[in-house]
UniProtKB/TrEMBL annotation:
The keyword Methyltransferase does not apply. GO terms for molecular function: DNA-binding transcription factor activity; transcription cis-regulatory region binding. Keywords: DNA-binding, Transcription, Transcription regulation. Belongs to the LysR transcriptional regulatory family. It comes from Shewanella woodyi (strain ATCC 51908 / MS32). InterPro entries: LysR_HTH_N, LysR_subst-bd, WH-like_DNA-bd_sf, WH_DNA-bd_sf. Residues 1-60 form the HTH lysR-type domain. It comes from the Bacteria. This is Transcriptional regulator, LysR family.
Length: 301
């Protein structure tokens, strides 16, 4: 074997950061050492791995070919190192990126369980909308994603986790709250506050009204669920969010669900990861614990 794990590590860091200087800081190496290691690897393989554009490096065709294989090699090396040091296999750092609903209502309990049962496993949690979770996985920024709805990119593997549904809701003082259900004409005339474009919740909502409601009166768009709920509580707006997001407020009477039998807003939360990432015991552990959590939630209902 002509190349070294150090060279593969340098390649992976430069590919992630698109910068020799940034990779040098991450690896606690000098820039010249990073450049030398990268150059040696390209010479050994006989292929250019990056396209150099000023100070920015982007992966070439061969770099994109090598990237998933390098990631698998580094993961396997980490598992070997853990085994040689007689450490438990379920240990190390894991990058999880979740959409907002799961991050707020499910992930805290999941992390608490893992901290108790697998104390050597550390989860680095990022919260993004569904579109950004997908982009981050494709750019190797995360090891596992949790999204709302569908992913159509064949480079990512998707497995359903837990079912949920969207609801339309208002303040108890909103004029629509007195009706048994909200008509399509009422929904057209209402002032809406909604999640931003790119959010999985927004995609599902727009899919539900497509072909049914011609034009929606959207006054504001926000990333933050808490902002949407606060605006609706003031009385003049209505919104649509996952039931998990409004469950507590509905129970204590701060918000009311407006029945909309014309709209099908069933959805599910899913795990996604790169299809070429190979086996990963840390990912398997987190998914197993998440499924156990969802089963316990169903039993409590």
């Amino acid at each position: 074997m002509k190349y070294s794990l150090k060279q593969i590590t340098v390649f992976d860091a430069v590919a992630s950061l698109e910068s020799v200087s940034a990779a040098a800081r991450k690896l606690s190496m000098t820039q010249s050492a990073v450049s030398m290691s990268l150059g040696q690897l390209e010479n050994l393989l006989g292929r250019p791995l990056f396209i150099r554009q000023g100070n920015r490096l982007t992966l070439s065709h061969w770099g994109n070919w090598l990237r998933p294989k390098a990631r698998r090699l580094l993961q396997d090396a980490q598992h070997i190192e853990l085994g040689l040091h007689e450490q438990h296999l379920i240990s190390g750092r894991f990058r999880l990126c979740s959409s907002q609903t799961a991050a707020e209502h499910l992930i805290p309990e999941l992390i608490s369980r893992i901290d108790t049962d697998f104390p050597e496993l550390r989860i680095d949690l990022m919260v993004e909308n569904t579109e950004n979770v997908i982009d981050g996985l494709l750019n190797y920024e995360f090891d596992l994603g949790i999204i709302e709805g569908r992913n159509d990119d064949s480079r990512l593997h998707q497995e359903r986790w837990i079912d949920d549904h969207l609801v339309v809701f208002s303040s108890p003082h909103h004029p629509y709250a007195k009706y048994e259900s909200a008509s399509l004409s009422q929904l057209e005339q209402a002032k809406w506050v909604l999640r931003e474009q790119g959010a999985g919740t927004r995609r599902i909502f727009e899919g539900a009204i497509h072909g049914i409601i011609e034009k929606l009166n959207v006054w504001k768009e926000y990333e933050q669920v808490s902002v949407l709920k606060s605006l609706v509580k003031n009385g003049q707006y209505i919104s649509s969010l996952p039931y998990l997001d409004v469950e507590k407020e509905v129970a204590n009477g701060e918000l009311v669900i407006l029945p909309t039998p014309q709209l099908n807003m069933q959805r599910h939360l899913s795990f996604i990861w790169r299809a070429d990432s190979g086996e990963n015991p840390l990912r398997d552990c987190i998914i197993t614990e998440a499924r156990r959590l969802s089963r316990n939630r169903l039993l409590k209902r």
